[in-house]
Write a structure and sequence with these properties.
The structure is a single chain. The chain is α/β, with parallel strands linked by helices and about 250 residues long. The chain has nine helices and nine strands. Strands 6-5-8 form a three-stranded antiparallel sheet.
């Protein structure tokens, strides 16, 4: 490094890339001072690779170079509109197609036990915003009055009809109404209950970054076999991969 000026003058070098850590700023300045007296093209590589990046990119803002460390393609206004149009179009078509099935399921829920057809539960979606996620009720009324319990879905008290719709995931169909309302997307990280979000944000690395986008009915983790009582840390890794690599083709 001390001889960089001499090497650049005496060798066929077109460009020099400075890839030193932030802690040696004075050395970087020294190299730049030496290169200033040569015709070499000098480029500086910011030392950001020690960070756990998410869809990182370089952009210019008011003439300043900005490194986007945590980002997603869905931060783009254009991509947000595309994603929303995708959700509105597909959820509308799907709701029309499954309306006879939903009517039959509503009758089944009503006949299985007294109470409402739908079960509403507070979940957390994009930007930590709470919303009421809809399901067909599979349990008797007030079964979970004792408080939220993580996992063990098979051990929860369900009606006989409720066991059937939970096993087949038919209880999830009303969430297409949530999609049409704009609370959710068809594809995205599965939204979690507010009480568990507060618990997991300190236990699972980068857990809160899954809320950079809307929660989904299904996601990359689920179609990869990570459903139900599976490793939450691994599911979050799949969610972050989806957020970083989003595209319409990935949704499809």
């Amino acid at each position: 490094i001390d001889d960089c000026e001499q090497h650049c003058d005496g060798m066929q070098i077109a460009e020099v890339y400075i890839c030193l850590p932030k802690r040696v700023e004075e050395r970087v300045r020294m190299i730049l001072d030496k290169l200033a007296s040569t015709p070499i093209v000098a480029k500086y590589v910011p030392d950001i690779f020690s960070f756990n990046l998410l869809h990182s990119k370089m952009e210019m803002y008011a003439g300043l170079p900005i490194v986007s460390v945590f980002d997603t393609p869905l931060s783009s206004r254009t991509n947000k509109v595309i994603k929303r149009l995708e959700d509105i179009t597909l959820s509308s078509i799907i709701l029309v197609m499954i309306s006879p099935i939903m009517l039959a399921l509503a009758v089944g829920v009503k006949l299985s036990s007294p109470g409402p057809v739908f079960y509403r539960q507070t979940r957390i979606t994009e930007s930590n915003r709470p919303f009421e996620m809809m399901k067909f009720r599979s349990m008797p009324v007030n079964t979970d009055a004792g408080g939220a319990v993580w996992g063990n879905a098979d051990k929860k008290t369900n009606t006989r009809f409720g066991q059937f719709i939970r096993k087949t995931s038919l209880d999830e169909l009303p969430q297409f109404i949530n999609v049409l309302r704009g609370d959710m997307s068809i594809v995205g990280p599965r939204p979690e209950r507010d009480v568990f979000v507060e618990k997991f944000r300190d236990e699972i690395p980068r857990y809160m970054q899954k809320h950079m986008v809307k929660g989904g009915i299904t996601g990359l983790a689920q179609v990869s076999g990570l459903r139900g009582d599976t490793c939450l840390k691994t599911r979050v890794e799949y969610d972050l991969r989806y957020i970083a690599e989003w595209s319409v083709s990935l949704d499809i």
